Amino acid sequence: MKNEIEKKTKNGFYWMTAGKIIQGAVRIIVLTILARLIRPDEFGIVAAAMVVISFAEILSQIGLGQVLIKKRNLTEGDISLAHLFSIATGILFALLIIGTAPLFSGIFGIKEMHSVLTVLSIVFPINGIATVSESLIQRNLRFRIYSLIIVSSYLGYAICGIIFAGLGFGLWALVIATLANATIKSGLLVFFQRHSWKLKLSRNGLKELVSQGTGFSIIKIFDYLSQQIDNLIVGKWLGPAALGIYSRTFQLVATPTALIGQVFDKVLFPALALVQGKNEMIKKTLYSGTTAISLVVPISVLLTLLSEEFIEVLLGQRWTAAVVPFSILSIGIYFRLMARFLVNMIKATGSVFNLAALQGINVVTIFLASLIGVNWGINGVSWGILISVIMNYLLLVIRGLKLIQADLKKFIISHRDGIMLALLKWLLLSLMIEYIEKIFDSPVIVIGISTASTVLIYAIYVFFNKKKLYNEWVKSS
Q: How far apart, in Å, are the Cα atoms of 15 and each of 175, 202, 244, 443?
């Protein structure tokens, strides 16, 4: 049982990571293209609408997906009841968004939000149809097919977005792409993870699912607010143009962390839920996971030192206001990833309401930091977000280590490789960047050479640690 779970978990990491790398690469390419076809204020309007849509989607599901994954003895009645509930709430929330669209448009002060919200409300019934299928495919650890579904649906987003933006649809290209993504994903999930659509009503069963899902819903709500409250403040106080710049900059930095974080959500949580109570296995996962995540720190160094070049290449010259926020937010990549890892670890152990309390503190911290930072524009908001991210990380570390009785010294030592590589990268890039810029007057070449040096550092690390890596990740699979 233990070996089978470890094997499926590691295979799941491989497949989901590969899928997220592809999705991340496509997302950055698509963003690079769309940034030249769609104005920043149009990006801001859709971003403001997605703040509402995403929050309502969390409320509509009340944590049912997480309950289906975590529940030890899942019955056909549970599945049928969850499916009926997901479809019903999908329709209900679509009507709710249509009815409240004028209200949200007035709150944000963006009149175009009304029509955008009305059209985007269609995603609720579309997603509701596939909620149970998505939960079951994760519960069954079928990550190969799941990763292919995610990549395929995002390719649908990319194709529709670029085509309609090229045809001059403006912000509606983003709306159409979002609907295409949801439709393709739901269709494929239902096709590949089939279950009985026979409807069985049970008041006690529904009460049990809802009560268990409440804690997960609170966590998801707080998690969502922590990701969106800065957008809400920027949009309200600085306007759609500033929101467009800030949200696209945040997306560039957050894409790698969000995609890898989704791997944790989809693979780590179901796997750890199967071994809850076995602290030694969880501690082993914590130490090895921390070592792996710390290896992203050199990438933060690269992005921070070359922020101007990255923004010019990826977004274009009219996005120069994004340079400083990009540099600031890049510092927090490790802290975001590690926080996501710890959240799934704590959640899988069953300490749901304690985690919810920590997430609530995080939301308050982000709100206050963003509200103070907005006085210095999007740069000030970026600094506020970075401070909040680090504080959240520290709170999660304290709670997580205590919960599984992990050794603080071992946890700190687990960062050794990542810190050493980051220092080496910083020293190397600091020495060579001035000479590279003098010789090559091209940001593309500067990024290319700097990235190649980063890859070389990682290759050297793998070469000298190949035996350890083989024993830990390959042989054990």
A: 29, 37, 33, 33
pLDDT tens-digit readout, 157-187: 999 999 999 999 999 999 999 999 999 999 9
Sign of torsion over alpha carbons 359, 122, 212, 196: negative
Cα separation, 306 vs 445, in Å, equals: 12
Q: Give every CB contact of residue 386 below 8 A, 6+ residues apart in sequence.
A: 328, 329, 331, 332
Alpha helices in 167-278 (DSSP H): 171-192, 203-238, 240-263, 269-274
Are the CB atoms for 396 and 358 separated by under 8 Å? Answer: yes
DSSP letter at 349? Answer: T
Give the contacts of 202 (CB within 8 A, at least 6 positions apart).
77, 81
| Residue-wise DSSP of 397-419 | HHHHHHHHT--HHHHHHTTHHHH
Residue of 168, 191, 154 whose CA lies nearest to 29: 154
Which candidate, 134, 451, 130, 458, places its Cα nearest to that of 305? 451
Locate the domains of the chain by residue range: 1-201, 240-477
Q: What is the DSSP letter of 58?
A: H
Q: What is the DSSP string of 125-157?
A: HHHHHHHHHHHHHHHTT-HHHHHHHHHHHHHHH
Question: Residue 277: left (phi > 0), alpha (psi -120 to 50), or beta?
Answer: left
Q: What is the pLDDT of residues 123-143, one digit of tens each?
A: 999 998 988 888 888 877 787
Task: For tokens 């179901």, name the residue.
Answer: 270
